[in-house]
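User: Fold both of these, please.

Assistant: Here is the first one.
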Amino acid sequence: MFDRLRKALGRDTSGADTPKSPPSTLLGPVSQWAAAEGLQLAAPGGGAAFAVNGSVGGRPWRMELGRPSRKFIRGQELRARAELDIDPSVLLMVLNRPLKEALEKQAYALFTDDLRTSADPNLPEEMRLVAMAQETGWSELPSAFWKRWSVVAENAAQAPQWIDVPLARRLMDWPVPLEPQVPFLLMLLRGKAYLRMEQGTEDLALLQHAAALFTAACENALDAFTTPG
């Protein structure tokens, strides 16, 4: 199950594995969905199929579907980012276990070489978190969740404040079956929230669920980690 991720982490994305053109069948439905949800269609970046802008708790967020920005994602990457301005010391991430194990194996090799690590500005932040933070767990979430997902945190006490039962349920219950090995992560880092996932289908319901999951994660983070003043 981990073979594809291991190969992807080590591959060269500069040419031979260039993804196909972005899908176009989502553009009409996305436009209708965005209008219904009060989102704004935005000018997509290079190679992106679409982008939408919104706000959560008065903070801006953006989601787009486009060319992958990480080696472990093939085809199209659905990604989101929110400028939450929460406590910048909070370092939390939830990711599916195949991705966690693949990142962990590569991070171990890199982090045993301090010179190489400090000299590589392109090292993905999620790899740093996997290497530096600790996996945590708590009994309020079912064992089925922990079989599928890993939560890593610099401060374990903060993790349950972010991943509550409703958010865990969203991670488990997708409208379109999400295979356990499909790369997916949610992350809080330097006051911002991030989502990255491999988009293997043009199903609008999957996009809507990902957006709802992301904004719910942002709301939890704002409630738990907004600094006074």
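And the second sequence with its predicted structure:
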Amino acid sequence: MVDALSRDVPVVIPIAAVEQHGHHLPVYTDSYLLGEIVRRVSSVHDQDALFCPLQWLGNSDHHMDFVGTVSARPRTYLDLLRDLGENWLRHGFKRIMFINGHGGNDVPGKQAVFELRQAHRDRSDLLLLMATYWGTGSNGGPGSNALTFVQNEMGHACEWETSMMLALNPALVGDYRDADPVAPGNAFLPASRGWTTRDRSAPGHIGVPQAASAEKGEVLFSKFSSEVGSLLDRVIAWDGQSWEG
């Protein structure tokens, strides 16, 4: 029973998306992959954290030129996340962690926890976090192993996502071997440019899908699950007051 839990138990809220993933991956790729990472983490932490059902609706407006995408507008999505967090605060829980599996959720997710904190600024016992699973480690890339990765960062329907899907359910992967590479490019860095997916990619993927393999997918699942689990360990161990953890 949820009501029997200590209010110091972390509440983990997985958030992802349903959107186009090029010509070779299903529209629920982000939700499917994050669900597997959360499954692995929860198998270790099922007694010391509360895992919410995965929220499949994401902020995917930049993919709306591609049929199959379902999206909430950024402000609508931000308010949805803020309300989800507010629900658990209302129930008395104090440690809330959104774990994200879609790049478009990053900005509204961070803003949601920022706004939540301002709304409860008189409290000193809250820990409100938003983290994207491929950014929870000190090194965002796959690290050193026997396999050679072409990409050193997450793309979209790319080497990483295609590899993880091959490891999880290869029957859902289409012809990734004929997908031409689409480089992420340098879009006026270090500035942040407004963009749609169609600005960057006619087929809808960004990265090098043909470099994918199931073996690489398992390396990535192992890495990301371990890193999310380590972050959750820090949340569990937090002393309830300090800035650092």
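The longest strand covers residues 95-100.
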